[in-house]
Amino acid sequence: MRVPRLFRVILPVPDIERAAAFYARVLGTPGERVWESRHYFDCGGTLLALLDPRRDGFGRDAAPSPELVYFAVDDLEEVLARVTAAGGRCRDDGIAGRAWGERSFYAEDPFGNPLCFVDAATVFTGREQPGRPVFDRQVQTEISHRGHRGHGGSDAAPPCPP
Q1: Domain around 125
Q2: Is residue 157 situated within a structural domain?
């Protein structure tokens, strides 16, 4: 049996039009409205599916996802500017180098869904990569014991720095 392929990740949103506009601006593609309550963006073979559960008949309002969605991007600074212009909010101090070797920034969409944008040249996959150190397990232990700021959203998140 082949390993299953991840093909769709759903983000709950209370306003499908505003959400589609935000993600179109951030991702640089219009995506596609596939249903009155769903808008899809093809992100390298995996669909980012925006879903308004109330309009989709689930009988409940959207609540922000508790889990981060990670995007690998070629121009981190450009994407940070797009997030800012589209109304996204930073969850930390902007672009930073991480202990595991990635350059990234954490943000929230206008509905509180947590996002992380990673420089594609620095993506950490958990495997050894030529020219990059293997993740230090001691660093991992320290991060997990003290918590990682980017993973803890806040209603008072500052706007992304320019």
Answers
A1: 64-149
A2: no
Angstrom distance (rounded) from CA 60 to CA 63: 9
* Residue 97, domain member (yes or no): yes
CA distances from 39 to 35, 46, 69, 139 (A): 7, 13, 16, 39
Tokens of 139: 């660093």
Q: What's the pTM value of the predicted model, to 2 decimals?
A: 0.83
Q: Are residues 40 and 96 in the same domain?
A: no
Same domain? 95 vs 112: yes
Does any domain span residue 11? yes
Number of domains in the chain: 2
Q: What is the pLDDT along the chain (162 residues), one digit of tens a residue?
A: 999 999 999 999 999 999 999 999 999 999 999 999 999 999 999 999 999 999 989 999 999 999 999 999 999 999 999 999 999 999 888 999 999 999 999 999 999 999 999 999 999 998 776 666 555 555 555 554 444 444 444 443 445 555
